[in-house]
């Protein structure tokens, strides 16, 4: 996925350095470790979390020098969670490339994910910042909890929108919130401004994951680089599906289908059709807009003007992305 | 597995406290996390790594107060690696109980392992000791590398004894070495004595893993709490098998069987029979004794006498264990 180059202009050189640092980081004596890591890097990614960390680091004084170490560690942690997600979901493609588990098998891929987690924590420890480390290890615990809850609630047609939103926070938004918080802390912001930037990250993160879930029912597989309807196929009920379960005239049919756990292609397609007959997508995009409005509204006036307008642009971008 | 109570008499109350701390540590809002963790704790374990850490912590002055936090973190890291190992190996039982993956499935178990890793690193970060943290994160990287190499070299009948021993170091001995090193550091030993205790841990660790591999071909499944011949079944070639591949009159048959990757019960049993026809077990136990002799010989005379004799007893115990 490509982001508009201009949007991150302010941190362009930071992001180049990030890629260089990511590339030079892992030099394992074990060839397979390097191969998997290179494959993951080449698959690219939005680098949203480190980018927000970097933006927040420069949001008090643009000329502040952010810690690339933390930006690298944040991305490594994210990569580790994706690698394990793909094992867990038996995913065959991500970002239009074969997943690590498809190429190297589940055994090695679980270990490669562990390696990335440990490497991330190792470089933060070497950097000597225990508070950051604590926040990031706690976030990994929280992501795991969110994923476990998601796994336990698969095919549970009785779950509420509130439970769904709590999962989004655990899986995604809290990590993005902490990325912003750590950046704000490194910038030397006031506690109130740190809290505001953390809240911004939370709201952007909720909007981001909501959009991700929406794309799973609206985009083409070519656009998102993985099969459409993947969540429903696994019994993971996202906001549009939960909305349809409440509001569709075919809600009983949808509920029965989900409870039966029979996720044949015909059933997945029928399920998606039921969702699209309702205004589930419109409703969900409305929630996305609300989160983004929240994100924009909490940005303090005290921020550096360039950083502030970039953070505004990120919020716009998250609402518009189609892939 | 039970250890002789008297052996660890010196750190008996530390070990009780360790169990209590382990038990009270994980209070997740997600019930499944607590259930898995309780299951893992109830399955027990030798607590060898934290015990050696604690012994080394008290090996300068017995009345020194060791950090239970590190002992807990060391055991959590070990638990996390076991949990992921069992997913990777599709193991059904460990310590005569069903594995977490058998009860909760691979999805949730991978995440529970990630949670344990993160929790371990979190409590070390909270404890504020970056050097320890760095050493332990690096050990996790090394364990992953060892397991990846092991996975890549499955069914490779051409691997050497040297490569096998290097794997043991990566998988097991280096972690035990660092557990001793961290204990020695906390005791305030001289650099030479710290290095000696680290070397002791390495040698004990090599002997321990060699014995583990030997038990897979010599013990009954009742004794070790998991099926016998498990390594061979997965194509993991341990020292007795590598010895037989060099020295058995049926070495060509054994080699063909391994290369064919046909690990039917009949073939596993025939493979074990070929191993037992040679003096592979005698040879391997000789290597165990050599490592334990090394371990005993490096123990400095400057150690507290009680701690020194306990460390000697641990070396004896590792050579004798039959389960």
Largest interface: A-B, 42 and 42 residues
The profile of the biggest β sheet of chain A is: 2 strands, antiparallel
Uncertain regions of chain A: pLDDT < 50 for 5+ in a row? none
- Total count of strands of chain A: 2
The residue-averaged pLDDT of chain A reads 90
Number of helices of chain A: 15
Coarse morphology of chain A: globular
Strand content of chain A: under 5%
Spatial ordering of strands, largest sheet of chain A: 1-2
Helical residues, percent of chain A: over 70%
Radius of gyration of chain A: 20 Å
Kindly report how far apart the N and C termini of chain A lie: 7 Å
* The CATH top-level class label of chain A: Mainly Alpha
CATH superfamily of chain A: Farnesyl Diphosphate Synthase
CATH topology of chain A: Farnesyl Diphosphate Synthase
Question: How many domain units of chain A?
Answer: 1
- Helices and strands of chain A, in order, run as HHHHEEHHHHHHHHHHH
Helix/sheet category of chain A: mainly alpha
Q: Can you describe this structure in just a few lines?
A:
The structure is a homodimer of 323-residue chains. Chain A has 323 residues and is an all-alpha fold.
Protein model, in words:
The structure is a homodimer of 323-residue chains. With 323 residues, the first copy, chain A, is an all-alpha fold. Chain A has a single domain, classed as Farnesyl Diphosphate Synthase (Orthogonal Bundle), CATH 1.10.600. In chain A, 74% of the residues lie in helices and 1% in strands. Chain A has a two-stranded antiparallel sheet. The longest helix of chain A has 28 residues. Chain A starts with 11 loop residues before the first helix and ends with a helix. At the A-B interface, helix 4, helix 5 and helix 6 of A face helix 4, helix 5 and helix 6 of B.
């Amino acid at each position: 996925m490509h982001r508009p180059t201009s949007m991150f202009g302010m941190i362009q050189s930071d992001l180049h350095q990030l890629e260089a640092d990511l590339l030079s980081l892992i030099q394992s004596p074990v060839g397979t470790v390097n191969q998997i890591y290179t494959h993951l890097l080449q698959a690219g990614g939005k680098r949203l979390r480190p980018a927000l960390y970097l933006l927040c680091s420069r949001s008090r004084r643009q000329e502040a020098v952010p810690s690339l170490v933390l930006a690298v560690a944040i991305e490594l942690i994210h990569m580790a969670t994706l690698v394990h997600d793909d094992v867990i979901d038996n995913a065959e493609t991500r970002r239009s490339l074969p997943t690590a588990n498809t190429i190297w098998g589940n055994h090695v891929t679980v270990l490669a994910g562990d390696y990335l987690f440990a490497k991330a924590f190792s470089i933060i420890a070497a950097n000597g910042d225990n508070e950051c480390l604590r926040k990031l290890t706690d976030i990994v615990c929280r992501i795991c909890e969110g994923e476990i809850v998601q796994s336990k609630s698969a095919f549970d047609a009785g779950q509420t929108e509130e439970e769904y939103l709590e999962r989004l926070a655990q899986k995604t938004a809290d990590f993005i919130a902490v990325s912003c918080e750590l950046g704000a802390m490194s910038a030397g912001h006031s506690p109130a401004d740190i809290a505001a930037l953390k809240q911004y990250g939370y709201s952007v993160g909720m909007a981001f994951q909501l959009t991700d879930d929406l794309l799973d029912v609206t985009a083409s597989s070519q656009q998102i680089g993985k099969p459409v309807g993947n969540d429903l196929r696994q019994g993971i009920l996202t906001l549009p599906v939960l909305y349809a379960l409440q509001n569709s005239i075919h809600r009983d049919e949808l509920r029965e289908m989900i409870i039966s756990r029979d996720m044949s292609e015909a059933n997945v397609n029928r399920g998606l059709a039921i969702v699209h007959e309702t205004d589930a997508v419109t409703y969900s995009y409305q929630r996305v807009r609300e989160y983004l409005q929240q994100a924009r509204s909490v940005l303090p006036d005290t921020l550096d003007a360039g950083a502030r307008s970039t953070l505004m642009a990120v919020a716009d971008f998250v609402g518009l992305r189609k892939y």
